[in-house]
């Protein structure tokens, strides 16, 4: 009886966590460059139940031996196995702001070990040291003329330096070169990750490597092509309609587990307060 409590509880916890992931995706449906999270739920290994007993052999010495008769398997519940990011390209839309930049994927190689398609990111200077990465190209100029993101982190060039501009009157070519009065002053930094699933996702659409190491530059990478578009932004890749369907499915699954838990509770209450009294 109590095994059922644990099985139902694991189902409720898994669906609750899945609901939290989906609602976070929906809350960021309008966040530029946001990459949706996907969850996978897996069952724990089944337990094989057997009845162990003695079998007597009618002989002079009264031999008997122990045998196990299979009863069947028992599922021990489910758990949220992992959360993976969806790094597909979001839609591109115009903003008319010169400091906005959309990063557009071209050809991306597939990692042989993981089967994951690689992706590219803008390079940012992280305040704790090292670099952070983002797909959100909603940039602006701070008081000193440095190009920064919406959280005030410095945007880095292809050489890893901060980008300082005299004003927002600049132009950006599709290959990332920044022009001021016809002269190239910097190249917007872009890094490449062959397996983005190993990156650590943080708040505000930032990604970092687990060990703090810097990702390699996307420029000159074999089989990697991309382009940029000024005065445009990449939108979130969250599918709102599908997310709403998944949210309702997760809620119904949670509700079903809840009803089973209530049925177990009533059975235990009857066993303790009525059958036990007899």
From TrEMBL:
<keyword id="KW-0969">Cilium</keyword>
<dbReference type="InterPro" id="IPR019776">
    <property type="entry name" value="Flagellar_basal_body_rod_CS"/>
</dbReference>
<feature type="domain" description="Flagellar basal-body/hook protein C-terminal">
    <location>
        <begin position="229"/>
        <end position="273"/>
    </location>
</feature>
<dbReference type="GO" id="GO:0071978">
    <property type="term" value="P:bacterial-type flagellum-dependent swarming motility"/>
</dbReference>
<dbReference type="Pfam" id="PF22692">
    <property type="entry name" value="LlgE_F_G_D1"/>
</dbReference>
<dbReference type="InterPro" id="IPR010930">
    <property type="entry name" value="Flg_bb/hook_C_dom"/>
</dbReference>
<dbReference type="InterPro" id="IPR053967">
    <property type="entry name" value="LlgE_F_G-like_D1"/>
</dbReference>
<feature type="domain" description="Flagellar hook protein FlgE/F/G-like D1">
    <location>
        <begin position="118"/>
        <end position="180"/>
    </location>
</feature>
<dbReference type="Pfam" id="PF00460">
    <property type="entry name" value="Flg_bb_rod"/>
</dbReference>
<protein>
    <submittedName>
        <fullName>Flagellar hook-basal body protein</fullName>
    </submittedName>
</protein>
<dbReference type="InterPro" id="IPR037925">
    <property type="entry name" value="FlgE/F/G-like"/>
</dbReference>
<dbReference type="Pfam" id="PF06429">
    <property type="entry name" value="Flg_bbr_C"/>
</dbReference>
<feature type="domain" description="Flagellar basal body rod protein N-terminal">
    <location>
        <begin position="5"/>
        <end position="35"/>
    </location>
</feature>
<keyword id="KW-0966">Cell projection</keyword>
<dbReference type="InterPro" id="IPR020013">
    <property type="entry name" value="Flagellar_FlgE/F/G"/>
</dbReference>
<dbReference type="InterPro" id="IPR001444">
    <property type="entry name" value="Flag_bb_rod_N"/>
</dbReference>
<keyword id="KW-0282">Flagellum</keyword>
<comment type="similarity">
    <text>Belongs to the flagella basal body rod proteins family.</text>
</comment>
<keyword id="KW-0975">Bacterial flagellum</keyword>
<dbReference type="GO" id="GO:0009425">
    <property type="term" value="C:bacterial-type flagellum basal body"/>
</dbReference>
